[in-house]
Design brief:
By secondary structure, the protein is of the alpha/beta class. The chain has one domain: 3-Layer(aba) Sandwich (Rossmann fold). Helix content is about 45%, strand content about 20%. It has twelve helices and eight strands. Strands 1-2-4-3-5-6-7-8 form an eight-stranded mixed β-sheet, sandwiched between helices. β5, α5 and β6 form a beta-alpha-beta unit. α3 packs across α12 and α9 packs parallel to α11. The longest helix is centred in the N-terminal third of the chain and has 19 residues. It is globular, with a radius of gyration of 20 Å. The chain starts with a helix and ends with a helix. About 5% of the residues have low confidence.
C-alpha cells in the first residue's frame, strides 16, 4: 500500500510540474525571401497555451555575436526562468521568440547584401503573428537581447517605435564615434566591415550608414516624442567592457528627458550575469503588457 501511495504521490507531483512547465522548440524555420535563405528560430510557449485558446503577448529575445537561436535556450536557461517567473506570478504568460541573427547586428548592411532589419520587420514579425497565438499589436510586443542582441533591441525599437511597447537591452554593444574611428583595422573588418564597409579607416568609418544605425546618434537626433513611444530598461554590469557606452546612452536619454530604467549591477559580460537579468526583463515587459 505504501508503494502505491508513494507512486501516486510522485505521479501527481510530476503532472503538477508538467502543468506548470512551458514548452520550448529550437527547430522552427522561416524561408526568408529578403535574406534569400532559411532562418532558424526558437520559441518558448507558456504552460497555459497547452490548455486554452488564448492569445499571448510576445517578447523577441536576441542573442549575442557568434551565437544563434540556441543561445538563450541552452545557456540562458530561458525555459526554466520563464516558467518560474510565470508560476510565481511575477511575469505574465508570454510567447518568447529567439531568432538566429548570425553576426548581422540585426541591421541592414551598407551594400544591401544582408537586410536583417527588413527581414525582422517585414517577414519575421508577420510570420510569428500568423502562425502563433499572439496578440498582434504594439501594446503586446516587446524586444530584448544581450550584447549584439542588446544593440539589435535598441536599433529595432528606436527605428520602429510603433512596433514595440518595451525594449530591454542587456550589456548592449553601444559604441561611440571615437571608439569606432580609433578601432584597430582588424577589429573593424571583423566586426563591422561587412556591415559598414571593409578597410575603412578613421573618420571615414563615420559615414552616413553608420550614423543611420548608431544607437547614440539615433538617441541624439530622433524626436523625443518618438523615443518616448517605447519603455526602456537598460542593464549592464559594472565590470563589462561595454559599460561606458551604456552609461553614455543613459546620460543622453536623461539629458533629453526620455523616461527609462537604468541598472548597473555587479558583474561582467557573462551568461551568469544575463541569467540573473532575465527575470527582471520578464517582469519589466510584463508590466508594460498590462493595462
Amino acid at each position: 500500500m505504501k508503494k502505491t501511495t508513494l507512486f501516486l504521490a510522485s505521479l501527481f507531483a510530476f503532472v503538477a510540474l508538467y502543468a506548470q512547465s512551458g514548452t520550448l522548440r529550437e527547430n522552427y524555420v522561416i524561408e526568408s525571401k529578403i535574406l534569400g535563405k532559411p532562418v532558424k528560430f526558437a520559441v518558448y510557449m507558456p504552460a497555459a497555451a497547452k490548455e486554452d485558446w488564448r492569445k499571448y503577448p510576445v517578447l523577441y529575445l536576441l542573442h549575442g555575436y557568434t551565437d544563434d537561436e540556441t543561445g538563450w535556450p541552452q545557456f540562458g536557461e530561458v525555459q526554466h526562468i520563464a516558467d518560474k517567473q510565470i508560476t510565481d506570478g511575477k511575469a505574465t504568460p508570454m510567447i518568447i521568440v529567439m531568432p538566429d541573427g548570425g553576426v548581422s547586428f540585426y541591421l541592414n548592411s551598407y551594400d544591401g547584401k544582408t537586410r536583417y532589419e527588413d527581414f525582422f520587420v517585414q517577414e519575421l514579425i508577420p510570420h510569428i503573428d500568423a502562425n502563433f497565438p499572439t496578440r498582434p499589436k504594439k501594446e503586446f510586443r516587446a524586444i530584448a537581447g544581450l550584447s549584439m542582441g542588446g544593440f539589435g533591441s535598441l536599433l529595432l525599437s528606436m527605428k520602429h517605435p510603433d512596433l514595440f511597447t518595451a525594449a530591454a537591452p542587456l550589456s548592449a554593444a553601444v559604441i561611440s564615434d571615437k571608439e569606432i574611428s580609433t578601432m584597430p583595422d582588424a577589429n573593424w573588418n571583423m566586426l563591422w566591415g561587412s556591415l559598414f564597409g571593409k578597410d575603412l579607416k578613421g573618420n571615414d568609418r563615420l559615414n552616413k550608414h553608420w550614423y543611420e544605425n548608431s544607437i547614440l546618434k539615433i538617441a541624439e537626433t530622433k524626436s523625443v516624442d518618438e523615443l518616448k513611444k517605447v519603455s526602456y530598461y537598460i542593464d549592464c554590469g559594472d565590470d563589462d567592457f561595454l559599460i561606458k557606452g551604456n552609461m553614455d546612452l543613459h546620460a543622453l536619454l536623461t539629458d533629453r528627458k526620455v523616461p527609462h530604467e537604468f541598472r548597473v549591477r555587479d558583474g561582467g559580460h557573462t551568461w551568469s550575469y544575463w541569467r540573473t537579468a532575465l527575470p527582471e526583463v520578464l517582469r519589466f515587459v510584463s508590466d508594460k503588457f498590462h493595462r
